[in-house]
Amino acid sequence: MPHEQYQACIDACTRCAQACRHCAASCLQEHDVQKMTDCIRLDLDCAGICELSVAYMSRGSEHSRQLCTLCAQICEGCAEECARHQAQHCQQCAQACRDCAQACRQMAA
Amino acid sequence: MPHEQYQACIDACTRCAQACRHCAASCLQEHDVQKMTDCIRLDLDCAGICELSVAYMSRGSEHSRQLCTLCAQICEGCAEECARHQAQHCQQCAQACRDCAQACRQMAA
Amino acid sequence: MPHEQYQACIDACTRCAQACRHCAASCLQEHDVQKMTDCIRLDLDCAGICELSVAYMSRGSEHSRQLCTLCAQICEGCAEECARHQAQHCQQCAQACRDCAQACRQMAA
Amino acid sequence: MPHEQYQACIDACTRCAQACRHCAASCLQEHDVQKMTDCIRLDLDCAGICELSVAYMSRGSEHSRQLCTLCAQICEGCAEECARHQAQHCQQCAQACRDCAQACRQMAA
């Protein structure tokens, strides 16, 4: 059954979307917001495609693999930017993005 | 921190959205789709507002309580319809909707 | 037919969601991002509920009125914040939010 | 400015998402739902990626081209299925999907 087959990837995308939403909101509360703007931008892209990937996989969509392939790329870009910042929300988000990218690549393989 | 304070409700909404997406897709594969159309319709409404509630709470949005109050109502309507059907995906979805409604009401209280 | 009956409100919500997404991204490019953070936060809430309202109305959902009632409130809060800023994207977003709030209130009446 | 540069594609994706949401809901009200299930499934995939594409382009996201390339493929699959059905909502949806695919390909070029 598609839903169960995809569960590890659904869980990784779910965690990543939440980490990105939280990171974007926390970046907006940082003292020096100016240097967090790329992080916020990439967080928004990443959260959006992770949420859509969860919706596709939960339906067992035939397009899940294609979407997760792109999701992995966007997660990797977000992870790279988040990893540059010392804030805990950025470091946690970078890890969630890396885990999600890996889960998406495995799912799409 | 809003994100953590909301975590139980985020988790319930996440599970409910996935259950609704899966239930809608599974209803479309039922032998007698005709009698599942109300269930599919309500699943789509419920999944959408649960996903938005997760996004709001993950950001620690000031509107989370208002949105979760409405989310609880929509979950209850979906639970009622799903509970009428014997299929496992409907019964599981009904339970996820009831759990989510309760978590949303507690969060909004 | 619900889709056509709701078309004016669908159009207003569509314009508002785009204006909010654009305003949030433009705020991130402002010289003084620090003073735009409330605007960005409210833009994200507003865009999300406008998009969900469009999805509900496009399906002719029975929950459209309830969702649009809440959408109107969130649009009004966003309009108030955006109106405080002189940037063109903020002024345009404030107007789109006011128009959307009005369309949502008329639809829900 | 990205938002304006993308406007034709934003508009095509917006119309396509609405047509798909409406088509899915109308398919559920057809006398013979059983033969519309592929159409409903593809409508849901297509609406979701069109909505995300609008969000990306409205923010002027650097990932807009990649997402629109995939969006075009999913639109073409949905157009092909919708075109098989005589119902007006399917024929209109097929046209909206073809227009959107073309706009996405031009944008991504």
Automatic annotation (TrEMBL), chains A, B, C, D:
A Pfam family of the record is Csp
Q: Which CDD domains match?
A: DUF326 (cd08026)
Protein's recorded name: Four-helix bundle copper-binding protein
User: Which species expresses this protein natively?
Assistant: Cupriavidus cauae
